[in-house]
User: Fold these one by one.
Assistant:
Number 1:
Amino acid sequence: MNIKIIYLSLAISLCQLINAQSTGVEKNIFGIQIGTFGIWGNLESRLTNSIALRSEIGIDSGIWGGNFYPETGYVLTPVLTLEPRWYYNLNTRIKKSKNISNNSGNFVSLKSSYHPNWFAVSNYDNVQIVPDLSIIPTWGIRRSIGKNFNYEAGIGIGYRYYFAKNSGYSSNSSDAAVNLDLRIGYTF
């Protein structure tokens, strides 16, 4: 009878140890990512078990063209981003024995980005950036590939405000903004 109690106690202790694994977002994750429209360095910091605050600095890019331009133009400009993310399916992924390392999961976020007029790199001379602030509710996924690599995809529609008076225009303006992220990255 005593041996059964020992085995039962061992089994219960093992189950508690297994369930004690981290079931939430990572404490801090630092990484770099490259995507269709830029390159970024980011830091995700845990706020709660399911919410992380992502801060990011990077270079966004854009292209333009048409009948009024002799050649297709491009621009590279800095961007600063602050994005609270709610990873809503981490516990479900754990129950299905799926990986949640490096915050692998689905998320909903409020992506807030600011493009300052610090500099612009372009194939056209004297390209000026009108500073803007965008706030875009976004749905996305993040998955780990091996230990250090990851990919992300996200989509959202929100609001963008242009600080046009700072660039010599008579008034500021705003419009709808779209976020379409396709990125691959490395986590340190």
Number 2:
Amino acid sequence: MKFDMGATTLSDLGKSTTGSVDDLGTLIKWLIRAAEPLEGKFNGEGKAAFDAFKAHADQITSDLNGSLGAILGGQSGMDTAFSSGDQEQSENAHRTMSAANFEAARFRG
């Protein structure tokens, strides 16, 4: 199995996730507004479920945004780790190459 990822993959993903957080909050607000004409149209269990949804809509929005925020934080941490690992690998390779004796590897006849 080969794992190959571009240098900007995680930062691009983070930017996309940030936009998704904003979009999700907007979509939930639109859903609540779209459901307003249904208020008072339900009885019994349907009314109870609708009222519970409406009462908890802000909490649902907050929880979902919090979860996406945590995902964004994880993506940012992975981006930092991959970037610093890439830089460290490059520095180690240069340090090792500068210490190598390439002259000794030449074959002379």
Number 3:
Amino acid sequence: MSDSDVPPGIDTSRMHPARRYDYLLGGKDNFEADRANAEMLTRAFPAARVAAMENRKFLRRAVSTLAREAGIRQFLDIGAGLPTSPNVHEVAQDIAPESRVVYVDNDPMVLAYARALLTGSEAGATAYVDADLRDPDKILNGQELWGTLDRSRPVALLLVAIMHFITDDMNPYGIVRRYVEAMPPGSYLVMSNGTLDALPPEKADALRAAFARSGEPAAPRTRAEFARFFDGLDLLDPGIVAAPDWRPDPGDDDRPGLADAAVHTAVARIP
């Protein structure tokens, strides 16, 4: 992308995680600072692109599963990032055109692209909320959310590849609990979080150092730390697993392991 295409209010000289993720997924909505940062991480963790791709595949499979098998017709995607097809509304509305999806992010570039591209089906609805994950009251009390979603019906709460930017001093478990408690009964929590569990110590240290050089918060979590987000919830089979192992597509036998995917994933029903 050239600087002439940049929406107002965007600093292209600084890396942004959403644009870096876009680059790792093979997208074009990124700038030199994002690409340079992604390449730095890739030198420390050569499977970075694999991890990004597998995380995105998990999102698609989780949305499809909830739409097909659980009858979910409402989705709240917080920390949505830049539109990358297939997006949540495309997956859900392909199964049930009446599905309603709300995307939440706080990046001006994401906002501009979401409003232009995330249109959805005539039978359903899509909306975008400009807000920060760390301000759940603003999101949950906003008319944009409940003007699109129905408070009386279950919602799939998607926190995919976002909580590993919320460090322990930011109260991650309290933030997730606030969202979970606001969801109607019978809703679902869909989450993924980066992890260093399967990396040799020297590679884990190199990746931590790369995150530190990037100037962004990073909170890779162990399986036990990730499991805490699901306390009191009912995990769907197969429980907490690496991204490629959460209900893989039929015939997908040659899957990367946790050492390459580097992401814990799970889906749970909210009582």
Number 4:
Amino acid sequence: MFSDPHFVACPAAFQDPVFREPNPAEVRLVVQQVGETPVVMVAFEADAGGPSPASGLIAAGQLDIVQGTVFRYWRENLAEGERLAPWVTPPV
């Protein structure tokens, strides 16, 4: 989980990301946008439904590795290790 995001450039929907260290051009881009080198910078390629992998770049103040299942829709009675995505709200 990324905390204190500074920069995010990625497809709206993707799956199976393969993470890597950002290249020098990506680092320069982020520094130009945010004015400093963030503590955490991660680049990745992922399947976004197109003919070739899509690239993504995330810069943040912190990265916490959290194992478990994240649901992108409302669900009651979560089991241990399960959680809802931050934007999910209960039905009215």
